[in-house]
Amino acid sequence: MSELFDAVDALIASRSPLPPPAERKRLRQAHGLTLDEVAAALQVRRATVSGWEAGKTEPRPPERDAYARMLKQLAQLYPAVAPVPPANTAIPETPAVPAAPASSAAEPAQARTAPTGPAAEPANTALRPVAPAAVPRPAVSTRPTSRRPAAKRAAPARAPAGGADPRFENGPLAVVDVADGQVLAYCVGGLVLDVAAKSLPALVEWTLREGRFGQPKLSGPGKDADPLIVLTGAACEHYGLPVTLTQQERLAGRLPEGHKVIKQLTRANWQLTKRGFGPWARIYRPAQGSERACVQLCIPSWDALDTRHWADAGQLPPADLARLLGTYAARVMTPRGSTAVTGLELMTALHPPTRASEPDAKGKRHSEHNPGSLGKDPVDCAPCEAPDGHPLLAALPRFHQRTPAEVLVEEAYDWARPLTDAECLRPHLVGIDVNMAFAAGANGLNVGLGAPTHVKSPVFDPKLPGSWLVDLSHVDLSRVKLAKQWTDLDGELLPSPFTPKGERPQGPAWYATPTVAYAVELGYDVRPVEAYVRHDNGRYLDAWYNRLRDAYLATMADLGVYADMPPAEFLAAMDGYRQRDPQLAIVVSAIKATVKGGIGKLRERPRGEGWKPGQPWRALARPTWRPDIRAAVISRTRINMHRKIVKHAAFTGQYPVAILSDCAVYASDGPSPLDFLPYRDGKPLPGGFKLGLNPGLVKHEGTQSVLWGEGVREQFNAPELNLARYIKDGTVTDQDTGE
User: Fold this and answer.
1) Radius of gyration, alpha carbons of the chain
2) Would you give the distance in Å from CA 108 to the centre of its chain?
3) Dist. CA 437–CA 441, nearest whole Å
4) Does the pTM exceed 0.85?
5) Sign of the C-alpha dihedral, residues 607, 608, 613, 619?
6) Averaged over 412-431, what is the pLDDT?
7) Nearest CA to 417 among 173, 233, 589, 665?
8) How far apart are the C-alpha atoms of 201 and 562, rounded to whole Å?
9) Could you write out the DSSP letters of every residue in 508-547?
């Protein structure tokens, strides 16, 4: 009988009533719960909960009963009420939607708004205006320094203004603008603060004393993010800064030292970093104990927001720009500069170099190395890993060209070949692009944490990160081992996995560990001549990958593209996704640029400043200047691509005609990737290309005709022109979109 009761209970649970999708989201946010928290409680993925709230999918047993139980309890705590009209404000109203109920005045302010910050749900609809919730205004509105109530609602948004930490109740950043002589700070969540500061030093003081901006640290031993203030052109004029830089200032990347605003800061005992007062200026005073006094400025009119990654974000109205940057800050981190700089800073924020030790005999704690980090001191790279001009190479003749046996060259693919006769008879060229390819290459990768050790005649160890001098010219792609079985392929139609241009190696050369390990995987013996290995190693980039992956998936989910979609639905959802919300699409571009830029920044080259070959440059003083880590990520990314290409060729007999970094082009009988990717019963080839959103899966990059491909090659007299560079829209230019 008990089994029958259990069956009845399960049947009832399978039909547990649920409120509408919008109400599910309102209830969660009203209680300050994040998508991650709900997903963890129900033991599902974050994207699954997001799909439930968007109405794309419905929960199934056993999660459905637990989800219904949670929503029922939240509905008792936060019953739906009619929206409250916004207070009088000069900001235009927008159409109202049901809002969160007002909370008791006795509740803490942070409990009445959904939290933001690294541990909270990113503002996944922050860029879509809705009516303001009936939430009491923060205590900031009563501050005596304001000439009128210091807080009011701007063009409303669903993004919360602050987080659970009362120190940062107004969010990570503000966009400061001047309208009709009044200085206003537009915050995340639609909040607008009245700024009484009349000079830039006073604005810095106001930000630190009254603004309540910032973001909690991403790691236990780390530091809280400094507040970010974005100055519009009008704000620049108000505070005595030029709206745009002169050509000389643009080349220098900063204002001249004698500028009046810099003198004002100096008189007020504020300092600038060595970068000076540029598009991303840091203004600080030396830390007093654990107290930091630092404000980051961003000036879009000085090209702080690179249009390659931020599109027209710098031209947006202040409230919209605050929402866009706030979404990026919540999901990635508060911007610290360009997307490349932020990508590198994110690594350090997730793995701080030091931590507090256990108390000594006197009960005091001391700073010590944080295990798993790169430490606080830079380490020298191996000579083969050093780029041209590095101090380690100062003894080389001035115009010496290093051979592959002298320098490690791990770069992304740029390879193409002529079409075969059979391929010319097919009507279409179809490009597929690997999502977040370099992030996928970083995932689970074992990299060196410390200095290299030089070894002669080593035995290759695929688990030991480093650089290996080895001859791989004997690897024959016409016969390789796949799944422990030897397979015959047409090696002439495949690029070599060992060189960026796809050429077969001619002798010993330096390779990163993933490249040599792949030669072993293909069934060939390797005998390194020497190596620089790193015995102190770990998966340093895992947390970095996870955060950027989650940011990417969450933002794409807001645009209607989900990680678990069937192939045909995924292709349809990806078609025109940027037009659904152009501002959220900018966030996607910025996240992707953060990945590529962060990896590239690991081997930053000299940037002027009077540098001469053989002399050190500023980036070498960073612990995160690690060309070996960059090489390992790129090596693994290229190998991941080649592995999929080989498995696809062995299974289908199809070979790519061009590869550019993470994009591969195939000749196809149809215009869709589904016309040549081997799906059976909805399942892809194991280990091959798979359509989907997650990093490492592929999307449709573009389709052109074979006649187009042959035509542009003939037009430019380039039989091996890389068609992957232009497959997206068919326009042949010199510009590399980075896709």
Assistant:
1) 28
2) 33
3) 6
4) no
5) negative
6) 97
7) 665
8) 46
9) EEEEEHHHHHHHHHTT-----SEEEE-SSEE-TTHHHHHH
